[in-house]
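User:
Note these tokens:
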Amino acid sequence: MRSALLLMLLAGCATPPKTEVVQVPVPVPCKVDMPDRPTMCVPKDDSRVEWLRCVLVDLPSWQQYARELEAALVGCVE
């Protein structure tokens, strides 16, 4: 009787275990070069006209910086 029980227990070990493949996303650091921040215009005095001039002078460079950041972000996502 003991040998039959032992053989039944060992027979359970003879069947291969069920394998299941689980795919887990692994975070990978981004390898994209970030663009340099544009330099900011410094107003000569505290007048509103001078501040507006600096904003208008800086606007195209900040818009280009935003486009480059978006391109870097797309490069990181893909």
